[in-house]
Design goal:
CATH superfamily of the largest domain: MFS general substrate transporter like domains
Strand content: 5-15%
Largest sheet: 3 strands, antiparallel
Distance between the termini: 65 Å
Number of domains: 2
Oligomer: single chain
């Protein structure tokens, strides 16, 4: 008896093992017998592609969007808070600028740390911890008795804000291949970039909140209310999925399969049968900063660093400068007689008016059409 094996592609995207048996010397007319087994192996991406884009990704997009709203609100809060504290605490121009700078320095210094935590302990763990700390330090900022206290709290908020981009990483890992090329998308008749939409909404919400709260309750209540959205994240934490790739890299194959089954169930699809392959993830080093600069991706890392620096410099520079211009409309442009004669900009302490808040809200939400 001689036998031979062959692999034929199945309808589910995996492979079936077929055993052909050749029987010699038998009176039977049957010369060949096929035995078909289930799918042998499949990768995480094959399982996600099979499940497609559905309710699971929609729910995850909303949860991720809340974190982007929180990020945007904290950044916009700096724009509104600076001029107010300058009036109340009689801050110098450099002290007002330092509050914003410390948040950005915190984000820069915390990004590598949270990347390490995410790789070592999971993206869900990092996001749950960071969002809780953002809420804690955000509310603590509202009780600041002095400038130094406020500066330290805002620096720590910035350190924790650096973890929020992990939501994009987690979300992209559960996107089917055909949807990933269009970016981080949300399903509604057609696709649109929900994360960036949430970012624009967050900025507009913060300005609207300031318009309502500041004249009546003051800046301390504004800071406390601004920390509320990020506190929804720990509440939604039990539903938040862990990265299937992280679970498989850690050797938790059963948990990774359970996550993929959950994706298929939420999207109304059947799970691929067979064994989850770990070939693509074997030997991966987790939590290594040096891995960003290995020869295969060193150039990409450097280019992305430069791109994000220029993007942050331009976007946040304009976003944070606008409230200053609104707060001092006649201090720094050519129609002011004092500027023309003495060649300097006056620094006047004046609260935001209703019209200033409206202008700030309009410019903040101007991002939305570009994202869609």
């Amino acid at each position: 008896m001689m036998s031979k094996k062959s692999l034929t592609q199945s309808k589910q995207g995996g492979y079936r093992a077929t055993l052909h048996l050749d029987v010699h010397g038998s009176d039977s007319l049957e010369n060949e017998k096929e035995v078909e087994n289930h799918v042998v192996e499949y990768t995480i991406q094959e399982a996600i592609d099979h499940s497609g884009f559905g309710w699971f990704q929609i729910k995850l997009s909303i949860v991720a969007g809340i974190t982007w709203m929180a990020d945007s609100m904290e950044i916009m809060l700096l724009s509104i808070l600076g001029p107010v504290l300058s009036c109340q605490w009689y801050l110098e121009a450099w002290e007002q600028a330092l509050l914003t700078t410390l948040v950005m320095v915190g984000m820069a210094s915390g990004s590598s740390f949270w990347g390490y935590v995410s790789d070592k302990h999971g993206r869900k763990t990092a996001l749950m911890l960071a969002s809780s700390l953002i809420g804690y330090f955000g509310i603590l900022s509202a009780f600041s008795p002095m400038y130094l206290w406020m500066a330290m709290c805002r620096f720590l908020v910035g350190c924790c804000l650096a973890a929020l981009p992990q939501t994009v990483t987690l979300y992209s890992e559960y996107l089917p291949t055909q949807s990933r090329g269009a970016g981080i998308m949300f399903l509604e008749v057609s696709f649109f970039k929900s994360e960036e939409i949430f970012f624009a909404i967050g900025a507009a919400v913060e300005v609207t909140l300031a318009m309502i709260v500041m004249p009546r309750l003051g800046w301390r209540y504004l800071m406390a209310f601004s920390a509320i959205p990020v506190l929804f994240f720990p509440i939604l934490g039990p539903w938040l999925p862990e990265s299937a790739r992280f679970l498989l890299t850690c050797g938790h194959r059963r948990e990774a399969v359970a996550m993929l089954e959950r994706v298929a169930k939420d999207n109304g699809k059947t799970m691929l049968k067979g064994k989850l392959s770990s070939v693509d993830l074997e030997g991966e080093e987790r939590g290594s900063f040096k891995g960003l600069y290995k020869p295969s991706i060193r150039k990409l890392t450097c280019l992305l660093n430069a791109l994000w620096f220029l993007l942050g410099f331009s976007y946040y520079g304009m976003a944070l400068l606008l409230p200053t211009l609104l707060n001092k409309p006649d201090g720094c442009h050519g129609t002011d007689i004092e500027v023309l004669t003495k060649n300097y900009c006056s620094v006047k302490c004046s609260p935001f008016t209703y019209e200033d808040y409206v202008d700030l809200a309009i410019t903040s939400f101007a991002d939305a059409p570009g994202y869609s």
